Task: inverse folding
């Protein structure tokens, strides 16, 4: 693995996260799968270790650090042997809270962001709908103003942390005739009357709770609007960049761990009088996988470096999201094949990875969405 921890502080933080993953997450990986969600009691522990608000202002309990620390967090979470768990955590740290930190009022930050950083509240991002996935502009959930309140009606689907979240960062239509300027981001507490959810039965990501929310005449204060009314679409596009990068960093780290497990398997597996790893076909497959993983890691590092330097990394992040998803799928497929029949067992990391990595090319912006954006940016 290629690590670039330039300071003693970076190395110390990596060791902190690594120890937490080794002691609290990895040993319970299959337990979380059986639970169908992450143990909520772990969030305060992560808060105490300073893992939940790395880039957020110290005024709200954050660490005031840069993206290099977020990258370390995601890399080490990739060693938890459970992509669902990794996703549940990073949804909270980097998918549902960035807009609140960037654009939220002081009152909202103290009421929702500070407890989230402490791990006392868990958050979720609610954008996708049954008829609006990659086409974010096609969402139908409406928030109609009634005095000082919004009345929200609609449905959101594929929501990570559905059973765990205390509040949603929800994107709704607040002005149907205003196009992209007619959306707003609203914090909706999940215990608000009129909210219900169903959990979804997935083929992977068993360690996270994914569900569909139903909102019927849900009343929340207009003051729960994040940023300006009508700026929600633009704010969510910015928040997607955080989401995509944490996904790609954690994904590649997870696949590097899978590659290592596959090498161990190949050294022990014997057939035709020799070990699997001694066969040239196996060696070539593993070399190709490692080369692609290293290339993907370097692309992710370029994204992080750009953000640390204060640059717009949207183009790089879009390429990373596209490339890393495809690399992960190829690596998972090759590792699955090398494990043979055992890969089809639930206890096999190769089997779990085969399902878990597939969603990386869909969630957070599909491959097609990334290519469409890049083609427009490059004026093709």
Result:
């Amino acid at each position: 693995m290629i690590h670039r921890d330039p300071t003693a502080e970076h190395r110390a933080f990596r060791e902190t996260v690594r120890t937490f993953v080794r002691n609290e997450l990895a040993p319970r990986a299959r337990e979380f799968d059986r639970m169908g969600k992450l143990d909520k009691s772990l969030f305060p522990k992560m808060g105490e270790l300073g893992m939940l608000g790395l880039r957020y202002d110290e005024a709200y309990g954050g660490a005031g650090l840069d993206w290099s620390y977020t990258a370390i967090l995601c890399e080490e979470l990739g060693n938890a042997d459970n992509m669902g768990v990794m996703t549940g955590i990073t949804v909270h740290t980097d998918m549902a809270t960035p807009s609140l930190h960037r654009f939220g009022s002081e009152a909202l930050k103290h009421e929702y962001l500070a407890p989230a950083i402490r791990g006392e509240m868990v958050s979720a991002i609610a954008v996708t709908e049954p008829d609006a996935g990659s086409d974010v502009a096609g969402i139908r959930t409406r928030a109609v103003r009634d005095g000082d309140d919004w009345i929200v009606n609609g449905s959101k689907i594929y929501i990570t942390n559905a059973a765990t979240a205390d509040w949603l960062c929800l994107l709704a239509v607040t002005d149907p005739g205003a196009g992209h300027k007619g959306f707003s981001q609203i914090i909706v507490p999940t215990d608000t009357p009129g909210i219900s959810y169903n959990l979804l039965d997935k083929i992977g990501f068993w360690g996270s709770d994914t569900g569909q929310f139903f909102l019927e005449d849900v009343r929340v204060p207009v003051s729960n609007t994040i940023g300006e009314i009508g700026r929600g679409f633009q704010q969510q596009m910015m928040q997607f960049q955080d989401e995509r990068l944490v996904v790609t960093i954690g994904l590649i780290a997870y696949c590097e761990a899978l590659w290592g497990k596959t090498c161990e398997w190949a050294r022990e597996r014997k057939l035709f009088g020799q070990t699997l790893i001694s066969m040239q076909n196996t060696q070539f497959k593993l070399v190709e996988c490692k080369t692609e993983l290293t290339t993907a890691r370097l692309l992710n590092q370029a994204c992080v470096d750009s953000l640390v330097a204060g640059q717009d990394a949207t183009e790089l992040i879009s390429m990373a999201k596209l490339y890393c998803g495809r690399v992960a799928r190829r690596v998972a497929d090759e590792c699955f094949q090398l494990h043979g029949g055992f890969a089809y067992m639930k206890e096999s990391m190769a089997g779990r990875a085969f399902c878990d990595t597939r969603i990386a090319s869909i969630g957070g912006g599909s491959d097609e969405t990334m290519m469409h954006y890049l083609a427009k940016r490059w004026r093709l």
Summary: DSSP finds twelve helices and ten strands in the chain. The CA atoms of residues 318 and 373 lie 8 Å apart. The mean pLDDT is 96.
